[in-house]
Specification:
This protein has about 600 residues and is an alpha+beta fold. It contains 15 helices and 31 strands. Strand 22 and strand 23 form a beta hairpin. The protein binds sulfoacetic acid (SAT) and manganese (II) ion.
Length: about 600
């Protein structure tokens, strides 16, 4: 299948290690897709959903203990431990290859090894990177076919000597003790064994497009980020683009597919999805920052997605979609908590057990129909609001970069940072409450710089230095903002309705980019003045709006030691400029705390 001698040799070596019965190259054709689907259905790896109601759709269940990324088993394997930094688990490359090699050895006996040539980014784009994933999971192959560009066209592009990322994935026995997700940035390689779940197994996604690409981006002078890319068109047909970084399961897919709220419909805004999870950003010939989405599909969180919260996503998942760990209805369709329609009277839950509304386990705890991190995998091209530019090899020019976390308090609805370096500091100190997308205690606040804590494939301090240095390389940089849709009142109720209403915040962001839009200067940045957000048709009381936009110096002052502790944890490579930003913020806060003299 390939005329690339190095690739051929590598596949032979990996096959010798894993011992599959056969190696099958993925060509990307429709016949192949059908064949693989039939095989997966036969092997009970997939279940074909109701062909009338959900044509081309399939259902998959993972093992109950394999439902999210396992950050504690994810490693960066660099020769020098310092290069992985304080936020990553580290293993030496020798140890990594040895440990994972022992699990891989012979693990594909009786199975097929699929070789998937894939391209992240539009084929032929200067942004794009090629990889080859070897896997013994048909589910992975079918997901990769949706999430990336695969097959013969990729091999053609690779030629006889092109660079490619070497990705080895195997299910082995899916045991939690024999699970490792290892990155070898110095070898452009990923070895993942023992998990069949999304981010652990679809190696083009987080492993390649963020951890390995991030390493390359630093060397080559660009950025690989955990960001959605959204086009915003005004009534004259002018489109501006923003990127936004939120941690997993904080609404990136919803924002990427936003629609205008009722109250603002008369303004004629239209929104275009370029990407919902990852952005690769480079300085363009015009001195602006340009972005491409390296992926070709959406791996979105199902629970909470419905025709009200995200009608575009709902339209995108009506065909050719793989559903993982949702509830299976008796009519061969699917349902999830916070989805459309009433819960079915009975169905089969994500663990394969009979389920009905109000189901409880032996201890009397409610049993869910769908796992909170259950997902849909859908082709981006099926999204009604997919941007006509989403596959443009040049990418799209970015006007604003938005950072955001899930914070019950402290962070206001939106603020604009003072300049690039302050924006980098703001991204670096982002914090968010933990969600179901990662193993661990849901709700706990953790620092998640640029939403990259689990995805930065090198020393976080060097990552900050790289961000700072990019500022000097972008003649016309985007403005940097911070948002928080999740602020709550004292009773714990959300102050902001979110979803479509976030358009009001985006409007203000774009106005600020054009040098318009009312704002008040606070120690943390510019916050909208009281009348600067268009609240037409929205029932949020003036007191609630006050609370949303409030910047309490005392609360922020309390955060400062947390920032310091976090940076100290990152070690002595933290750039001086970050410390200067820290000092300057502290200064601004203490000045604000002094009552103004008459
Ligand atoms: O599991 S994935 O990393 O693919 C999805 C996510 O957590 O963002
Ligand atoms: Mn993500």
């Amino acid at each position: 299948m390939t005329s690339h001698p190095r690739l051929k040799r590598w596949v032979e070596e990996m096959a010798a290690l894993c011992g599959p019965d056969r190696v099958v190259w993925i060509d990307g054709s429709d016949e192949e897709k059908k064949r693989l689907e039939d095989e997966a259905v036969q092997a009970k790896d997939l279940l074909r959903l109701n062909p009338e109601k959900l044509p081309g759709c399939f259902y998959h269940r993972t093992k109950p203990d394999d439902v999210a990324r396992t950050e504690h088993l994810t490693y960066i394997c660099t020769r020098n431990k310092e290069d992985a930094g304080a936020t990553n688990n580290w293993m030496s490359p020798e140890e990594g290859y040895k440990k994972a090699g022992a699990i891989f050895r012979g693990s594909m006996r009786g199975r097929t090894m699929y070789a998937i040539p894939f391209c992240m980014g539009p084929l032929g784009s200067p942004f794009s990177k090629i990889g080859v994933e070897l896997t013994d999971s048909v589910y992975v192959v079918l997901n990769m076919r949706i999430m990336t560009r695969v097959g013969k066209k990729v091999l053609d592009q690779l030629g006889t000597d092109g660079e490619f990322a070497k990705c080895l994935h195997g299910k082995a026995d899916l045991s939690p003790e024999r699970k490792l997700i290892l990155h070898f940035p110095e070898d452009n390689a990923v070895w993942s064994v023992g998990s069949g779940y999304g981010g652990n197994a679809l190696l083009g996604k987080k492993c390649i497009s963020l951890r390995i690409a991030g390493w390359q981006a630093r060397q080559e002078g660009w950025l690989a980020e955990h960001m959605l890319i959204l086009g915003i068109e005004d009534r004259r047909g002018q489109v501006e683009y923003v990127t936004a970084a939120f941690p997993s399961a904080c609404g990136k897919t919803n924002l990427a597919m936003i629609l205008p709220p009722e109250g603002l419909k008369h303004k004629g805004w239209r929104f275009w999805t370029v990407g919902d999870d990852i952005a690769w950003l480079r300085v363009g010939p015009d001195g602006r920052l340009w972005a491409v989405n390296p992926e070709a599909g959406f791996f979105g969180v199902a629970p909470g997605t419905n025709s009200r919260t995200n009608p575009n996503a709902m339209a995108a998942v009506q065909r050719n979609t793989i559903f993982t760990n949702v509830l299976l209805k008796d009519d061969g369709t699917v349902w999830w908590e916070g989805g459309d329609g009433d819960p079915p009277e009975h169905g089969t839950n994500w663990q394969g057990q009979p389920w009905k509304p109000g189901a409880k386990d032996a201890k009397g705890k409610p049993v869910l129909g769908a796992h909170p991190n259950s997902r849909f995998t859908a082709p981006a091209s099926q999204c009604p609001c997919i941007s006509p530019k989403w596959e443009d090899p040049r990418g799209v020019p970015i006007s604003a970069v938005i950072f955001g976390g899930r914070r019950a308090r402290v962070a206001p609805l939106v603020y604009e940072t003072f300049d690039w370096a302050h924006g980098v500091y703001t991204g670096a100190t982002m914090a968010s409450e933990r969600t179901a997308a990662q193993d661990g205690k849901v709700g706990e606040v953790r620092r998640d710089p640029m939403a990259m804590l689990p995805f930065c494939g090198y020393n976080m301090a060097d990552y900050f230095a790289h961000w700072l240095s990019m500022g000097g390389r972008i003649p016309r940089p985007p403005k940097i903002f911070h948002v928080n849709w999740f602020r709550r009142d004292e009773k714990g109720a959300f102050l902001w309705p979110g979803y479509k209403e976030n358009v009001r915040v985006l409007e203000w962001v774009l106005r600020r980019c054009r040098g318009e839009g009312g704002a008040v200067r606070t120690p943390i940045g510019h916050v909208p003045s009281h009348d600067a957000l268009d609240m037409t048709g929205l029932d949020v009381s003036p007191a609630a709006l006050d609370a949303l936009l409030d910047v309490k110096s005392e609360e922020w002052s309390e955060e400062m030691p947390e920032h310091k502790k976090f940076f100290e944890k990152l070690g002595d490579r933290v750039p001086q400029e970050i410390w200067e930003q820290h000092k300057a913020l502290g200064q601004r806060l203490s000045e604000a705390a002094v009552p103004a003299r008459k």
